[in-house]
Amino acid sequence: MKNNQCAHRPTGRQYWLSLPLLLSPFYAIADSNPCNTASADTCKPVIYQVFTRLFGNTETRNKPWGTLEENGVGKFSDFDDIALNSIHQLGVSHIWYTGIPHHAVINDYQDYGISLDDPDVVKGRAGSPYAVKDYYNVNPDLADDPAKRLEEFQALIARTHAHNMKVIIDIVPNHVARNYQSINAPKGTIDFGQQDNTRVEYAKHNDFYYIPDTAFEVPDLPANQPLGGQAHPLSDGHFDERPAKWTGNGSRLAKPSANDWYETVKVNYGVKPNGEHDFPALPADYANKDWQAHYQFWQQVPAAQIPASWHKFKAITLYWLAKGVDGFRYDMAEMVPVEFWSYLNSHIKQANPNALLLAEVYTPSLYRDYIYLGKMDYLYDKVGLYDSLKAIIQGKQTTAQIAKDQANVADIAPHMLNFLENHDEQRIASPEFAGSANNALPALVVSSLLSSSPTLIYFGQEVGEAGAQNAGFGQPSRTSIFDYIGVPAHQRFMNGGKFDGGQSAKQEMALRQYYATLLNLSHTQPALLGDYVDLHSTNIDSQGYDNQVFAFGRSSKQQQMVVVSNFSQHQHKQFTLKLTPAFSQYWTNKDADAQIKLVDKLADNQQVSVIKQADGYQLKVSLAPLQSQVWVTSPLKYQILLDR
Q: Taking 80 as the threshold, does the pLDDT of residue 10 lie above it?
């Protein structure tokens, strides 16, 4: 039917499974992502987060607290050309390799000159990737030959670049492992804490805060920790640290709680214990200046006025840029003063102006400071869009909240990273989140297309991984970052290294193809670099349109796009969508006389005609449960035809 485009489509929860197989065209178009060559303001990145230790693991035993030998571990070499090609086909521009810097681990690598780590201050059997032990090398678990682990990672960087994707790694500036000691730092590098005055709680150039004359005490841990109660020569309830240091989350107790980040120590950035700053203030008008001006500001500050920790992290990031890394994801960035970020990020941009800088910030009132003063490219949109979409999926909120969230960040929307999963969050398919992956497809469409900001997906998300394993330290609903464990849905797609879905269920492959379709169009459609247009408030009183539906437009001179999503798991929605003047501003009378056609990029390029009325333009919409439509003007100068 001409104006009822979904009348012939399957209904109910199975709609998303009926999508045609659209993967093959992306072999041809994946190179078109402008983020491979352009700066951040002229592209819409698609970031694929992989937990490097888990990605290539084929072992399916999944024993709680299992060792590396029992539960297996992924390696750098698992990211071969086949694996990287499968990631690239999703439309990915950047791979965030999580867990790269050498963090505290339980395995014995003394034969490689690496000291043993004490299980009493290591979380899980495999260790936390955010308790970094040596910033100048990589996790030995990930190497086929631990003696050549750095060379193996550099080869992975080169392979990733060869597949036209860029490399992001973590930097964790707020804290380091309690047993931090770099054995691989360049000659002349001063280790964290090496020159500290440990007789005082605070000194400007101390890297850590201390509790003088007091020894550290291991917290009272649950009965199954560490290591699930298994014996280990260093697991005795003691860790030698005198004087004790402040713990990573800011605890000033010599004996932190088991709920504290007890495996880490807080880094001092020149913030006194009373909160006063012991470093030069950045003038407020620098919020309006570019990174070049920030760089020049810090060049004029004498080195002695800069806290020692600032110099150390500058050296670390420049070291990795020189190795070929293309950007950084900063853990808990808001726990570090914004002036430090101005200093660090301007130096990074001086070395590589196109470096991608992504920060974990959860306080909305600080967003603009970290973007404009801290010179961040992107911040997590967690406390806002993510939380709202999750609540809508769970029936706790209506789609009206999406418009509010978008309005709250309208001025900084291009800087807000959108996601539905990452290593910290529950898996979509887990019972604790959505119960099944398809229940989140409308949210995926909205979060991917709402702005010109990046989209992040977490490995396994695209095949509906539920994170149901009891890994030991990590518990079901999240894929554990602390343990050796398999990721079953991902392993089925991996199919022993073929990455062809040979063991995947039909539903898993249909889901992955939906992701590929959406993510590829998210960076190939010119409208997505244009303006956001509110269509929800205009249509909320229209017959058939309600707060289980969300509609918006994206508009540029080159192209216009209408996005409509039905969040209801059970109800069809049918209505006439009014298109506002802000959306149709580029349409001339000549265009209207020629009958404007829109193409649905999520449904085989099906066409529909826009209806011109005296009071504007309209579009007939019919949506099955959980269905989305993405209508774009056609023909397009840059259109990628999925049916060619």
A: no
Decide the pairing of beta strands 94-98 and 166-171: parallel
Residues 483/65, Cβ–Cβ less than 8 Å = yes
- Rounded to whole angstroms, how far apart are CA atoms 363 and 358? 15
Whole-angstrom Cα distance, residue 443 to residue 449? Answer: 10
What is the spatial distance between Cα 460 and Cα 118, in angstroms, rounded to a whole number? 32
Q: Which of 520, 518, 513, 516 is nearest to 638 (CA)?
A: 520
β-bridge mates for residue 631, sequence order: 562, 600
Query: Measured between alpha carbons, how far is 636 from 630 in angstroms, rounded to an integer?
Result: 14
Closest residue by Cα to residue 51 from 543, 575, 461, 523: 461
Amino acid, single-letter form, for residue 10: P
CB-neighbour burial class of residue 44 (10 A; exposed 0-12, middle 13-18, buried 19+): buried
Measured at the alpha carbon of residue 267, what is the angle toward residues 264 and 268, in degrees to the nearest 5?
Answer: 150
Question: Across-strand partners of 575?
Answer: 621
Decide if pLDDT at 438 tops 90. Answer: yes
Check if the beta carbon of residue 60 is closer than 8 Å to that of residue 468: no
91, two tokens:
């439309």
Tens-place pLDDT, residues 538-567: 999 999 999 999 999 999 999 999 999 999
pLDDT of amino acid 42:
62
203-217, 364-378, 451-465, 627-641: range with lowest mean pLDDT: 627-641
Q: Strand 356-359 and strand 378-380: pairing? A: parallel
DSSP string, 188-211: TPPPTTTT--TTSS--TT-SB-EE
**Burial letters 610-640, b for 16+ CB under 10 A, else e:** bbbeeeebbbbbbbbbbbbbbbbbeebeebb
Q: Which residues contact 322 (CB under 8 A, 6 or more apart)?
A: none
* The pair of three-digit structure tokens given for residue 352, joined into one six-digit string: 């590589």
DSSP state for residue 371 in the 8-state scheme: I
Average pLDDT over residues 473-498: 98
pLDDT at 594: 61
pLDDT for 577: 98
Nearest to 26 by CA among 627, 635, 601, 559: 601
Q: Is 84 exposed, middle or buried (0-12, 13-18, 19+ CB in 10 A)?
A: buried
**pLDDT at residue 373 in the model:** 98
Q: What is the Cα–Cα distance from 447 to 89, expressed in whole angstroms?
A: 20
Across 26-30, 235-239, 497-501, least confident range: 26-30
The percent of residues above 90 in pLDDT, for the chain, comes to: 88
491 neighbors 57 (Cβ within 8 angstroms):
yes
What digits encode the pLDDT tens for the residues 181-217?
A: 999 999 999 999 999 999 999 999 999 999 999 999 9
Bridge pairing between strands 356-359 and 327-330? parallel
For 557, other C-beta atoms within 10 Å of its C-beta total: 10
Strand ranges across the sheet with 611-613: 573-579, 616-623, 611-613
Q: Kindly state the percentage of the chain with pLDDT values over 70.
A: 91
For residue 398, the 8-state DSSP code is -
Least confident of 13-17, 52-56, 393-397, 431-435: 13-17
Residue 110 φ/ψ, nearest 5 degrees: -60, -30
Residue 544 Cα to chain centre, angstroms: 36
C-alpha 286/C-alpha 342 separation (Å) is 10
For residues 545 and 552, give the distance between their C-alpha atoms in angstroms, rounded to a whole number: 13
Is the alpha carbon torsion for 53, 59, 65, 66 positive or negative? negative
Instruction: Report the 10 Å Cβ neighbour count for 119.
Output: 24
Q: Which residue has the tokens 């894929």?
A: 479
